[in-house]
Specification:
Layout lengths: L1 H18 L6 H10 L1 H21 L4 H4 L2 H23 L1
Length: 91
């Protein structure tokens, strides 16, 4: 699925660059936006991997390391970095 997302978004960008259009259609924009949510998913998977690492390797300090505050910050960070990736790829 990620390969199709990269291919579609690059195809749209290539079409804008070579046909000298100032914008893409609304449907194309929403499709590209939908497929780039995979970037956010990748950050969430990395956070889940870190969570499991702490749970398995440091079980006695798990609650100290993965407090609700830390979990919220990791979740918020995944959304922020995901949108940064989306914006960088869209430019």
């Amino acid at each position: 699925m990620e390969l199709s997302a990269v291919g579609f978004s690059r195809q749209q960008k290539r079409g804008v660059l070579f046909h000298f259009k100032d914008s893409i259609s609304f449907v194309g924009c929403m499709t590209q936006f939908y497929f780039h949510f995979g970037a956010i998913e990748n950050f969430l998977l990395a956070i889940m991997a870190y969570d499991r690492y702490v749970a398995v390797c440091i079980p006695l300090r798990y609650l100290l390391i993965m407090s609700p505050n830390v979990c919220f910050k990791l979740l918020w960070g995944s959304w922020v970095f995901g949108f940064i990736v989306i914006i960088m790829l869209s430019l």
